[in-house]
Design goal:
Shape: globular
Radius of gyration: 19 Å
Distance between the termini: 21 Å
Strand content: 25-35%
Structural class: alpha/beta
Largest sheet: 9 strands, mixed
């Protein structure tokens, strides 16, 4: 079976996000396997908190009816061209539409200051992306799912707990909260000061998102630098930095406090040797989810994608197809 990863040559451009149009840059029809399926990739925008966010809408070709749909967004400091296309292509092959988007201030989306992570706003953006997908004429609004990795996994879980439209959730190495006990008051004071200065209108202080061990960066373990270099080859809009105030927001973000409210299935893949989003913390947070399936893989945070990418894609596709049903040709699998 052919399971291609869309190449950057098919990546749409976003020439004018201020035009007010929901579709920009045209529609690109991708035939990665002419004998098996056709995938249409369209550049779109949608509003979130008064800002237009850029998205890539992946639609399977020749559907026989309304499609199930999944919303996804990148992890910490990432853009939608990183990792997301591989999962979107596989879901499209199973007859599931995908909307992948950039957060405000990142990639092709509007928003200032650039590279600033307002995590509550990012969570709301997931909901607004779901609004856009649910309103699309080719999408079945009763069969919607959310997908997230690392930081966006926390957003996806929060949305599953608060939005009854979510019928299936798949998260990989999800962020469930930061243990600040080992950070020390001096570091927390510095982060809080950076946040206050930025809020007061001073230029943002910046820090590298990823670095080599021993360097000053938000992430330096688990092969973060090597993974960043590999994943950004097809993501020219990526910048390896975030505001220092983003880390203060991270220290105060707790997306999984209401998971007992989740009624739809939740599927999680954890990396048992993960030092960035530790598996024990994720297991504790997910413990209140009633309909839960967890797969654990003995790898670090980024090794999950370098060593087990195909496995995580296949599991993600199977879970969404089982929960949402998939449309393939004229047949609907429920």
């Amino acid at each position: 079976m052919c399971r291609p990863r869309p190449r950057r040559s098919y990546r749409p451009l976003y020439p004018n996000l201020n035009s007010g149009s929901d579709t920009v840059g045209g529609t690109h029809t991708v035939r990665p396997c002419a004998q098996e399926y056709v995938m249409t990739l369209t550049a779109v925008t949608f509003p979130s908190d008064g800002i237009r966010l850029a998205g890539d809408l992946y639609l399977p070709g020749h559907p026989s009816g309304p499609l199930p749909g999944v919303v996804m967004a990148p992890g910490f400091g990432g853009v939608k061209e990183m990792l997301m296309p591989s999962y979107a292509a596989s879901l499209n092959e199973a007859g599931i539409a995908v909307l992948a988007f950039d957060y405000a201030g990142f990639g092709h989306s509007e928003g200032e200051p650039r590279q600033h992570m307002d995590l509550d706003a990012q969570q709301r953006a997931y909901r607004h992306a779901l609004d856009y997908l649910a309103a699309h004429p080719g999408i079945d609004g009763g069969r919607l799912g959310v997908f997230g990795t690392s930081m966006s996994g926390g957003h996806a879980l929060a949305l599953a707990a608060s939005d009854t439209r979510v019928r299936s959730t798949v998260v990989l190495i999800p962020f469930t909260g930061l243990d600040v006990s080992g950070l020390g008051p001096g570091l927390l004071d510095m982060l809080e000061d950076a946040a206050r200065r930025q809020e007061a209108g001073e230029p943002p202080q910046m820090i590298a998102s990823t670095g080599r061990p021993g360097e000053l960066a938000a992430m330096t373990t688990d092969g973060a630098w090597e993974w960043m270099e590999r994943m950004t080859a097809d993501a020219p809009g990526y910048r390896n930095e975030v505001t220092l105030a983003s880390l203060w927001n991270l220290a105060n973000y707790h997306p999984t406090g209401d998971l007992a409210a989740v009624t739809a299935p939740v599927h999680a893949i954890l990396a048992t040797d993960d030092a960035i989003t530790p598996a024990p913390a994720a297991r504790r947070a997910l413990g209140s989810v009633e309909r839960l399936e967890v797969v654990e893989i003995p790898r670090t945070h980024f090794e999950l994608f370098t060593d087990h990418l195909r496995e995580t894609i296949d599991l993600t596709t199977r879970w969404f197809a089982d929960d949402l049903g998939s449309v393939t040709g004229s047949r609907v699998r429920l």
